[in-house]
């Protein structure tokens, strides 16, 4: 087991600001269903798999749809989303996070990524960050997405780390709950009230004192 804590980063909303595109895409789908998806409801979709997002939306709308319509809506949402992120590049990396990861690596922390997105590897290649991580776990690697901790458990195994010696950086309540379930230190990034379940909350990476996490 390693001396320094392993850092596990979320992608959408932590490394790049793609959450707004997920929200815009779901709003288009909801409009088609005659439903107005609010920002508050969208907080509950953050970190949640595409499939589970649509299930939640259908609960909110009280609509019953066929399996084929369900699949069609998932495909349509992803098509809209991919179009919106088509021009993504390294200028879309959120300020401070790349330096934070570089420092972590220089100081011998293992660095992993766990995103619920099935598009995570595509996004990482667009951001030119693919080579930065010792392990990458995404929506294709897990059976159960956040708030289930499966992806974090896989990331800890791939980096040969004890879960209690891992620090999770997340913008979603679902991700924080997942990390808490297996006793990881959870750090909320952003200003959503939903992040209060985290061990610590910071507005952004520039606010974080790197030495805070070198105590294990
Ligand atoms: P996709 P993260 C999550 O990514 C997003 O927060 C969430 O809004 C999205 O529904 C989910 O990925 C699935 O994404 O449709 O691209 O497979 O925050 O865990 O990096
Ligand atoms: Mg996220």
Characterize the structure shown:
By secondary structure, the chain is α/β, with parallel strands linked by helices. The chain folds into two domains: 6-16 and 89-211, Rossmann fold; 19-84, DNA polymerase, domain 1 (Orthogonal Bundle), CATH 1.10.150. Helices cover 39% and strands 11% of the residues. It is built from eight helices and six strands; from the N terminus they run βαααααβαβαβαββ. It has helices at 19-32, 39-43, 50-61, 67-84, 97-106, 120-127, 150-158, 173-181, and strands at 6-9, 111-114, 135-137, 166-170, 185-189, 200-202. A six-stranded parallel beta sheet has the order 3-2-1-4-5-6. Helix 1 (19-32) packs across helix 4. 38% of the residues are buried. The model has no long low-confidence stretch (mean pLDDT 94). It binds 1,6-di-O-phosphono-beta-D-glucopyranose and magnesium ion. 1,6-di-O-phosphono-beta-D-glucopyranose binds at residues 10-13, 19, 22, 45-50, 53, 78, 115-119, 139, 172. 1,6-di-O-phosphono-beta-D-glucopyranose (B16) is lined by residues 10-13, 19, 22, 45-50, 53, 78, 115-119, 139, 172.
């Amino acid at each position: 087991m390693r001396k320094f804590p392993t850092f596990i980063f979320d992608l959408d909303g932590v490394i790049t600001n793609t959450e707004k595109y997920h929200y815009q895409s779901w709003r288009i789908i909801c409009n088609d269903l005659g439903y107005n998806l609010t920002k508050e409801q969208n907080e509950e979709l953050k970190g949640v798999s595409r499939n589970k997002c649509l299930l939640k939306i259908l609960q909110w709308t009280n609509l019953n749809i066929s399996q084929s319509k369900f699949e069609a809506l998932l495909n349509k949402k992803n098509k809209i989303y991919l179009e919106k992120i088509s021009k993504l590049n390294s200028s879309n990396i959120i300020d401070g996070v790349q330096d934070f990861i570089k420092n972590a690596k220089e100081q011998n922390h293992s660095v992993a990524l766990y995103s619920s997105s099935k598009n995570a590897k595509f996004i990482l290649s667009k951001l030119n960050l693919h080579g930065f991580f010792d392990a990458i776990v995404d929506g294709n690697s897990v059976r159960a997405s956040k708030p289930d901790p499966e992806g974090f458990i896989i990331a800890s195994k791939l980096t040969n780390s004890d879960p209690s010696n891992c620090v999770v950086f997340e913008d979603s309540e679902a991700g924080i709950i997942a990390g808490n379930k297996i006793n990881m230190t959870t750090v909320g990034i952003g200003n959503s009230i939903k992040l209060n379940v985290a061990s610590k909350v910071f507005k952004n990476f520039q606010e974080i004192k790197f030495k805070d996490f070198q105590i294990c």
